[in-house]
Every structure is written in structure tokens, then in C-alpha cells.
Amino acid sequence: MKKYFVLTFVLAFAGCFMARAQKVGLSLNAAEAAYLGSIDIEAQYALAQNWSVSAGGTYNPWSWGKGTEVERNRRRRDFSLGARWWPWHVYSGWWVSGGAMWQEYNEANILFSKDNTSEEGDRLGLRLGAGYTYMVNSWLNIDFGIRGFGGNTRYVTYECPTCGKVLDRGDKFFIMPDEAVLSLMFVF
């Protein structure tokens, strides 16, 4: 009896998604992957003709030049919840977005930085973005955009990426560019 109840529940739940074509989108951000190998995935659900909600995450465990004088890293993981407004139709055309994001990070010698310090901590704040989605066909889109992130961070700054000597610690307000969006979006 219990098996039939579970099977009925699973089929009914799956049927809700199958009955609503073009409601779910799954994005993989190629721009984040190109920038130091981050894995960035976002799922979206269309609520109405002009609104969608999203949940996403980014993960980057990599370091380059470990044990050398110029170790570089942008290790991080973050989780976000948000919404997009589409003036024309969901998953097509221009969009603006907003939401909340939490990020755990460790950054040292990013790109052209001449500073050899390392900073790690937690960030919590709001994320705003805008962009354009080009429909390739009924199940594939290309997403272009940019996002900013602002809020509060609790951080510790170290003298170098590997030594562990603390230079500074505390809380501070920040506003920063978050990511460039160049995503493949699969629409179901």
C-alpha cells in the first residue's frame, strides 16, 4: 500500500511539470566557467507571462600555482534566490533581476593584482542584474547579462595566501560587480 501511495505521489508531481510546457529553465554559465573554472548552475520556474523565480549556485574549489610565490585562487561557493521580470515574455528578450545571495570565499592574487594578500570570509547581500535572452529554438536559449552584488561581509585578511599571518579582520559593507552572464539555457 505504501509503495502505491509513493508511486502515485511521484507520478502526480512529475505530471505537473509535464503538463506545463516551457515552464522550467536550467542555465549553465560559460563565462563563469571560463573565469578560473567556476561551475555555475541556475534553475528557473516561470510563474506568469512576465515573471520567473530562480535558485542557483556557484562552486569553485581550484587554486593555481599552489606553493609558489604567486598562488592565485578565487575559491568560492554561493547560493542565490531571486526573480526576473521579462517585459515581453518569460525566457525571451530583455530582463532585469533581483534577489538575495550568500557567498563563502577565499581570494588571492586575482588576475592583475600586485597585492600578495589573501582574504576569506562570508558575504550576504542583494544581487541585481540585467540582460537579454536570445531564443535559439523552443528548448535552447542563450543568455547575456551582467550582475552586481552588495551587502555585508565578515572577513579575515592574511599577509600571503599560504602563511596564515592575520593583517585585518572584521565586518564591512561592499558593492562589487558579481558576474558576467553568458549562459546556455535549456527550457523544458
The percent range for strand residues is over 45%
SSE succession: HEHEEEEEEEE
| pLDDT averaged residue by residue | 85
Q: If you consult CATH, what is the topology?
A: Porin
CATH class: Mainly Beta
Q: Classify the secondary structure makeup into a structural class.
A: mainly beta
> Can you give the helix content as a percent range?
10-25%
Number of helices: 2
Q: How would you name the oligomeric state of the polypeptide chains in this document?
A: single chain
Main sheet characteristics: 8 strands, antiparallel, barrel
The value of Rg in angstroms is 20 Å
Shape-level CATH architecture: Beta Barrel
> What's the β-strand tally?
9
Q: Which strand order spans the largest sheet, edge to edge or round the barrel? A: 1-2-3-5-6-7-8-9
Q: How many distinct domains?
A: 1
State the low-pLDDT regions, or none: none
In whole angstroms, the N-to-C terminal distance is 32 Å
Overall 3D form? elongated
Question: How would you explain this protein's 3D organization?
Answer:
The protein has a single domain (24-187), classed as Porin (Beta Barrel). Helices cover 12% and strands 61% of the residues. The protein has two helices and nine strands, in the order H-E-H-E-E-E-E-E-E-E-E. Strands 1-2-3-5-6-7-8-9 form an eight-stranded antiparallel beta barrel. The longest helix is centred in the N-terminal third of the chain and has 18 residues, at 2-19. The model has no long low-confidence stretch (mean pLDDT 85).
